[in-house]
Design brief:
The protein is mostly helical. Helix content is 61%, strand content 11%. It is elongated and about 55 Å long.
Length: 74
């Protein structure tokens, strides 16, 4: 195995742990995630459909920016 894979696994693990800490301590401040304008929500009597398209686009953009920063640094 390559030592680069080990570095990536460590950084991924630290990122997941950091995300977990943020969600644990600031969950009450992040209630807007998933309720943005553009998120599709259909609720009927016996049916609920939720498609968070705007949230997914913003999350994808943020992850893309973080990956570019990560590649420039390492």
């Amino acid at each position: 195995m390559n030592s680069e894979i080990g570095k990536y696994l460590i950084f991924i693990g630290l990122g997941i742990a950091l995300l977990g800490l943020v969600l644990y301590f600031f969950h009450d401040k992040l209630h807007w995630i998933g309720h943005l304008p553009g998120d599709i929500r259909i609720e009927k009597e016996n049916f609920k459909f939720y498609f968070p398209i705007t949230t997914m686009l913003l999350l994808s953009l943020a992850i893309g920016v973080l990956i570019r920063i990560f590649r420039k640094l390492f």
